[in-house]
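Hi there,

I know you've been waiting on this one. I reran it after we fixed the sequence typo, so this is the corrected version. Both the input and the resulting structure follow.
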Amino acid sequence: MADRFTDVALSAVDAGWKPEEVAAALVELADHLMLGMISNRDLKKDLPFLRRR
């Protein structure tokens, strides 16, 4: 996974992004991925209860 991560980062730099911008964007993407996973987990937990209403 590290190789792919580096490939994405280097591609962004090659496209004109500053390394700091790339790092910030990758952190934000990872954060949104985690938040989405948490939301989906919570929804799966709550959905049976919500369907009973």
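Quick highlight: The radius of gyration is 17 Å.

Best,
R. S.
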